[in-house]
Write a structure and sequence with these properties.
single chain, alpha+beta, Arc Repressor Mutant, subunit A, archaeoglobus fulgidus dsm 4304 fold, 2 domains, nine-stranded mixed sheet, 9 helices, 13 strands, 23% strand, DNA-binding
Length: 310
Amino acid sequence: MKFSKEVAGLVDQIPSGMISTYGEIARALGDVIASRTIYATLSQGIDGNAPIHRVVTARGEAAYSKHLQVLKEEGVPIRDKRVRDVSEHLFKNFKSTRILEKMRKEQEKLAKKVSLEDGFTASRLIGGVDVAYDGDNAYAGCVILDAEEMKLVEERRLSGMVSFPYVSTYLSYRELPMIKRIYSKLKNKPDVLMVDGNGILHPRRIGIASHVGLELDTPTIGVAKRLLLGRLGKVPEKIGDFGSIIHKGKVIGMALKTSKSDNYVYVSPGHKVSMKSALELSKKLCYHRLPETIRRAHRMASELKRVRTK
DNA sequence: GCGACAG
DNA sequence: ATCTTGTCGC
């Protein structure tokens, strides 16, 4: 399954004289949230001769003025450098595998299996994973630390290709394959693994950290640098303070102040870890803005990318 | 202009 | 995430 092929297959269905929008293509795949990803995918170019000029924004704007000229020749009315009436010529009857809908259903099914109880006996070996990118090339870094002595126990790095793009709330479908591969290389499996991204702080309560935890059947914690959803309850004042992230009346994560700025770190349980433990372990490892595990994994991934890119 | 959604 | 020089602040 290559995402861009999936998109090309949809664009190919738009007949001459008709148009579609980034949002409509995303809807055809099963979630309008992917509209910006569709825009990015088409901008980067897709294999084949799909008529990408027939895909415009919801307001009728084309990526290139050249595209408007072609649309005009195909009989689509243009005015003020825009498609005059988007809905009038909008093609909607896509035949689609609805891949995002399938993924969402899978997430909903998996979310029921997430455990928010501590499922570890020791919490000495803490892991961190992160992935850097150069187009479809991925570079993963993984580090295992002894949290008692703050000593490095193991480091792994791995490069590979990814076939699925970044789509907000579907991040695990991009990164999980690489994370599984690098985890399998570890000689020292961590008591708890920290993942760059959210755990249950997710619309379906199954962010990448939860998905990874279920897939590897291991305790995980999600640590994100930006808030995906929800609102902050009490504002953290001092370093070490934290405030709840509330969504639909539930506490689904914690905003932890780890530096002088208001760039909180958003911590949430992934799988087999309680909210309390997720927060405590994250705090314990924060000598800088990010927990040391995530910080080092991030540096490893970036460094691997740097040497491989040159 | 509003709203804004991890990596 | 990535694109990216010098600049600001601790």
